[in-house]
């Protein structure tokens, strides 16, 4: 066995194995996770070996010797374990990856039942099981122990905790009477959860302290402004990485030419951290102080007409620098993107001659027009281009059709492909029709499954999913259902193996297939089924009925049952939701992860939590508010004033991610005024922290906001502004939105705007300079100095600044 190496993953002679040998095989199979595309077979083999390994022995005795196959244990098996057995096997259990959240909940409860008290030592042993610790248990920990946890190796698992659990830890670390030490000790991505309110109370920050912390944008805006006032070396702030998120256009405008050029590399090194608005500001600054040495990709952030300043001799640097960035994040307006791509085509002369040109293109390859893909890529360059195209995240329909035709021309129809060709073209199989894929599904089902498994982060086309579904159904063992349910006799129900292989293609099961599923199959796969995004409402209803059949009525369900349901829980009606035991905020937090609840369902969950926990609105802690998530939108607006300010102020940013109704947001906005003062006093960091809460501003309050604050609305807040309120923004305010917020404006909001407002919106989309109107250049000529511009352009800028359409219309005739 030890000499088999990876061949152990394909061992199939199980008849004569005894429990001891099965345990050794399971230990050897840890290495099988390195195999790509064979995990379904590995999973099935482990399950069979697991059954042999526990024969004639209790699970309590064998738990520590089952290796990573323990993730295959069912809920009932895990629940049968004694706390002592879990404690004795914790070194194995804590290192195993692949646990379902419901399994982690059961095992953590068993482990902590043995330990009694939650201390640094026993938490540090939990590893992968840390996510099963309840929010309340974290809050009950000694703060010193909790601080040690955050500094220890187990802190790597904090990112896997729910927002409610993270807030529970944070509320303990950042206690009202002693904020400073707790905040400084928080490292990495977890630091983003620290509220702006708590940051404003903390005096001891410097760039060195912040070096290993990930910052949210509101935090960075506040800290950069704060540290800029006290530091003698502002360049240290730019080199601190995350702090660049807080550099505003005003800061960039205020930099001297020498300082800006000397430290521009700091911006470039952290380009992924910059917002489109910041990139736009950097582009304008570079254009003004040193346009001849300007990195060519920055021209894409300026209005489209500035692309004319790229001479043919600069095409290669332009393509290289633009190809190193993702155009979709650099240019958000579709019309402007068309202009940029037109310049790219001009530089390419509508063709790609060789591999060198493909390498120059970089990420721009993903934006090639269909016509160039079809006719403009030479045979010499095609192989390299095809390799690049497979990494493109989102080709449009025309591009996909062009790639498909090109592949058909090169390789012929899929029914004639060899296994090697099919494997090479795996990422492109989604481009073909169901009929074209049927032969692949029949001849090479394993290759089709491998291709599907690599698309786990995206939702493939329905035709592709059907091909995957048919290939699994055709190759699996067909055992008619023995379920006594009426109408299931003879139906070939889904097996655990089928469900594991299919992933998102599970959405293709017929209702009767799901209804006739064996109970044991449902228990083993419910978490996988709950993660399928493509299930229809009737399919979810069928799976909910199966859950009731297996677990009895919802009133009997425990936390791990509810957590395992995932999207299936969306099928629970209001009466069934009221039956659930929602006394734990962690149970509610698992439900609030779903975003498709109806208002009635959300209200049932919120009220169910209040009833079962015994809390009233005024009793809710910060971690309760976070755990309630989207269900908080169902709160009665008369109850929002009852939420304690001391709890609300530390979770403003979390509440600001919710897409609540206008009246609810308006009431939260009133509460935010108690924390941050009158809207006229709000800063860029406050506006960014508030998120969608800022959409609760009244018409009068919105009109009073300084135009320089407009880029610091979050795009989600712009979308949430009611149409009749959004139209109250002045043309100057709209022009100052910045590219990202302008792109967030909805069609309904656009329809309510005047011609002048629409012109301003287009300016914002195009990246026109509005943060320093008085010196905006009106010409794209590379030889013009930063202060020169045409008189007509100057008068047009003045006309817009005054909000006077007459001056805009008269500008050219006057001059």
Automatic annotation (TrEMBL):
<dbReference type="GO" id="GO:0009986">
    <property type="term" value="C:cell surface"/>
</dbReference>
<feature type="compositionally biased region" description="Low complexity">
    <location>
        <begin position="776"/>
        <end position="790"/>
    </location>
</feature>
<keyword id="KW-0325">Glycoprotein</keyword>
<dbReference type="GO" id="GO:0007160">
    <property type="term" value="P:cell-matrix adhesion"/>
</dbReference>
<protein>
    <submittedName>
        <fullName>OTOA isoform 4</fullName>
    </submittedName>
</protein>
<keyword id="KW-0732">Signal</keyword>
<feature type="region of interest" description="Disordered">
    <location>
        <begin position="769"/>
        <end position="790"/>
    </location>
</feature>
<dbReference type="InterPro" id="IPR026664">
    <property type="entry name" value="Stereocilin-rel"/>
</dbReference>
């Amino acid at each position: 066995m030890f000499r088999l190496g990876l061949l152990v993953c394909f061992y199939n002679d199980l008849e004569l194995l005894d429990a001891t040998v099965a345990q050794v095989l399971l230990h050897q199979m840890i290495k099988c996770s390195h195999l790509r595309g064979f995990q379904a077979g590995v999973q099935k083999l482990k399950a069979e070996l697991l059954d042999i390994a526990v024969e004639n022995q209790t699970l309590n005795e064998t738990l520590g010797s089952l290796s990573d196959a323990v993730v295959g244990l069912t809920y009932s098996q895990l629940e049968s374990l004694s706390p002592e057995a879990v404690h004795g096997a914790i070194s194995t259990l804590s290192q195993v990856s692949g646990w379902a959240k419901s399994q982690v909940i059961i095992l953590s409860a068993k482990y902590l039942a043995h330990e009694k008290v939650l201390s640094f030592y026993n938490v540090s042993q939990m590893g992968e099981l840390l996510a099963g610790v309840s929010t309340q248990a974290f809050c009950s920990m000694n703060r010193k122990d909790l601080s040690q946890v955050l500094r220890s190796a187990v802190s790597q698992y904090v990112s896997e905790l729910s927002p409610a659990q993270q807030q529970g830890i944070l509320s303990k670390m950042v206690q009202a009477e002693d904020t400073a030490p707790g905040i400084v000790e928080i490292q990495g991505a977890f630091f983003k959860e620290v509220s702006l309110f708590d940051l404003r109370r903390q005096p001891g920050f410097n760039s060195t302290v912040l070096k290993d912390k990930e910052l949210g944008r509101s935090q960075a805006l506040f800290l950069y402004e704060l540290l800029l006032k006290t530091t003698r070396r502002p360049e240290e702030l730019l080199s601190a990485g995350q702090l660049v998120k807080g550099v505003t256009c005003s800061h960039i405008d205020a930099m001297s030419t020498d300082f800006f050029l000397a430290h521009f590399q700091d911006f470039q090194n952290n380009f992924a951290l910059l917002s489109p608005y910041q990139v736009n500001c950097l582009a304008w600054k570079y254009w003004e102080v040193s346009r001849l040495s300007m990195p060519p990709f920055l021209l894409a952030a300026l209005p489209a007409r500035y692309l004319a300043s790229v001479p043919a001799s600069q095409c290669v640097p332009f393509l290289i620098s633009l190809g190193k960035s993702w155009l979709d994040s650099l240019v958000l307006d579709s019309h402007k993107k068309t202009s940029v791509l037109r310049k790219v085509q001009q530089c390419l002369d509508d063709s790609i001659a060789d591999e060198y040109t493909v390498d120059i293109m970089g990420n721009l390859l993903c934006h090639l027009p269909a016509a160039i893909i079809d006719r403009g890529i030479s045979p010499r360059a095609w192989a390299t281009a095809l390799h690049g195209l497979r990494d493109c995240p989102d080709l449009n329909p025309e591009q996909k059709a062009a790639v498909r035709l090109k592949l058909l021309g090169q390789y012929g129809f899929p029914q004639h492909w060899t296994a090697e060709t099919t494997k090479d073209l795996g990422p492109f199989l989604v481009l073909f029709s169901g009929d074209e894929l049927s032969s692949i599904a029949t001849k090479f089902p394993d290759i089709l499954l491998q291709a599907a498994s690599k698309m786990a982060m995206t939702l493939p086309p329905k035709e592709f999913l059907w091909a995957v579904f048919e290939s699994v159904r055709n190759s699996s063992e067909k055992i008619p259902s023995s379920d006594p349910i009426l109408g299931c006799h003879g139906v070939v129900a889904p097996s655990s193996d089928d469900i594991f292989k299919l992933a998102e293609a599970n959405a293709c099961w017929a209702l009767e297939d799901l209804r006739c599923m064996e109970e044991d199959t449902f228990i083993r796969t419910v978490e996988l089924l709950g993660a399928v995004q493509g299930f229809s409402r009737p399919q979810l209803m069928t799976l909910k009925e199966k859950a009731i059949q297996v677990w009895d009525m919802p009133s009997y369900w425990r936390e791990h049952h509810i957590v395992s349901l995932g999207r299936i829980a969306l099928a629970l009606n209001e009466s069934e939701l009221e039956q659930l035991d929602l006394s734990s905020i962690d149970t509610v937090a698992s439900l609030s992860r779903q975003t498709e609840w109806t208002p009635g369902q959300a209200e049932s969950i919120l009220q169910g939590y209040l009833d079962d926990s015994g809390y009233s609105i005024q009793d809710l802690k910060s971690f309760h508010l976070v755990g309630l998530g989207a269900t908080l939108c169902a709160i009665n607006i008369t109850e929002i004033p009852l939420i304690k300010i001391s709890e609300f102020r530390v979770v403003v940013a979390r509440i600001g991610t919710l897409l609540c109704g206008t009246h609810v947001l308006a009431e939260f906005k009133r509460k935010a005024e108690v924390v941050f003062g009158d809207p006229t006093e709000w800063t860029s960091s406050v506006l960014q922290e508030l998120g969608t809460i800022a959409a609760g501003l009244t018409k009068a309050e919105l009109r009073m906001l300084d135009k320089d604050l407009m880029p610091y609305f979050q795009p989600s807040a712009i979308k949430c502004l009611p149409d009749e309120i959004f139209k109250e923004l002045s043309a100057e305010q709209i022009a100052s939105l910045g590219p990202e917020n302008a792109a967030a404006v909805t069609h309904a909001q656009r329809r309510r705007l005047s011609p002048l407002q629409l012109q301003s919106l287009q300016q914002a989309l195009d990246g026109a300079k509005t943060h320093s109107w008085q010196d905006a250049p009106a010409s794209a000529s590379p030889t013009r100095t930063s202060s020169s511009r045409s008189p007509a352009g100057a008068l047009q800028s003045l006309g817009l600044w005054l909000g006077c359409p007459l001056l805009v219309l008269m500008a050219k005739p006057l001059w």
